[in-house]
Amino acid sequence: MALNIKRPNGTEDITGKNIRKWHTVERTARDAAAEFGFHEIRIPTFENTELFQRSVGETTDVVQKEMYSVIAKETKFTLRPEGTAGTIRAMLQNGMLNEALPQKAFYILSCFRHERPQAGRLREFHQFGVEMAGSKLPSADADVILLAHTIISQLGIKNVELKINSIGCPKCRAEYHKALKAYFEDKKDQLCDTCLSRLEKNPMRILDCKSPICSEIAKDAPVILDFLCEECSDHFQKLQSYLTNLDLSFTVDPKIVRGLDYYTKTVFEFVTTDIGAQGTICGGGRYDGLIKQLGGQDTPALGFAMGLERLILTMENQGVEFDEDLGCSLYIAPMDESAVPTAMKIAKEIRSGGFNVEFDTVGRGLKAQMKYSDKIGAAFTIVLGDNEISSGTAKLKNMKTGEQIDIKLDDTLLNTFSSIALDDMFGGVLE
Ligand code: ATP
Ligand code: MG
Description:
Helices cover 39% and strands 21% of the residues. It is of the alpha+beta class. It has two domains: 17-169 and 229-318, 2-Layer Sandwich (BirA Bifunctional Protein, domain 2), CATH 3.30.930; 330-424, Anticodon-binding domain (Rossmann fold, 3-Layer(aba) Sandwich). Helix 1 (18-35) packs antiparallel against helix 5 (138-154) and helix 5 packs parallel to helix 9. The chain is elongated. The protein starts with 17 loop residues before the first helix and ends with a helix. Adenosine-5'-triphosphate is lined by residues 82, 113, 115, 120-122, 125, 127, 258-260, 278, 280-283, 305-307, 309-310. The site of adenosine-5'-triphosphate has 21 residues, from strand 6, strand 10, strand 11 and helix 11.
């Protein structure tokens, strides 16, 4: 049998310059989250399967079709398909919800779902997400939506639409479920098997089915907005007025129900048309019942998650700039082996000033070394031979201008190099 060491379908390697794209997105998201008072949390890659069954919900696509589970030593574990369940579990387990509320956490993590891989839909993907526990007011919803909006616009992403909806609370949903069941009852035989089984247990899930036939039938289904109780309706109205007050444009889309069972009241999505069919770059909402359901006190909460692959894809398609790699500041070229110890010492010294320094470690001749330093885009080079070492002076060459300056290889070296290199990088800008 042929050896199969290729990466699994629906996973990606991130190599070379592409990592800059990830750093750009992660840095922007982290900085914005900190400005909004969120603290980073790190949680396990896998949890007890029960956690996701109880939170994401037994009738969701994620739990019914997409989880990667293993039985290890008789315990059933699942690779996290999303970050909310684990984050809330961690808040409960670490007593965070007994401290001053709201508790505000953000995360950057990988998620795993067994889906059909395509552009913007992977089996291992990455999310930046936030969770805010203990806030019941619609001003919290507006602030969380503003954070998502801030990150998306700071990344330079355009053509994004904010869609919001309210899917009510268990009180208004009881009436709505009745109306949905009545609507789907005489179309039962056209529904897919999964939706048929959902009809009794959780008819709202049918609205989220990806099968073309079910989604066609669902088009004319009653919408939850017509069934909201006074409290939910009031919450939704206030949210809209806060968003307007913040100059955030949005549309109310009564079709948004989200794919996870724990949502209540507000749900929202940021959608772009620039990356094809998988255009939802961020999804979130309120989940006021989840914490109690997982064994905590009755505590309202909300959050969102953005798909990092979809953010990057959108930025690429829109030609947005990513952070640049500063690259190699200094390449040291020993003419032969006897100069290597000095090259290593100089590298150690200059790196201590925060510069990226490289020297030859493959035994190339001088000409090949210069070619290599050109290839890696070194800003400066120093050639080290017997003369340089015995005189304690070498030539520092600016690779862009070709200019050469004598520099002393003593304890003034770092200072001298710093001022020349910084002047080269920023001199023109500062003048
Ligand atoms: P979709 O409707 O696209 O399947 P979802 O409702 O399943 O999304 P959520 O569970 O809310 O998505 O996850 C939040 C975000 O994570 C999504 O808006 C999307 O940007 C991203 N995401 C979800 N699933 C994937 C995936 N398989 N591959 C890449 N990104 C994903
Ligand atoms: Mg999905």
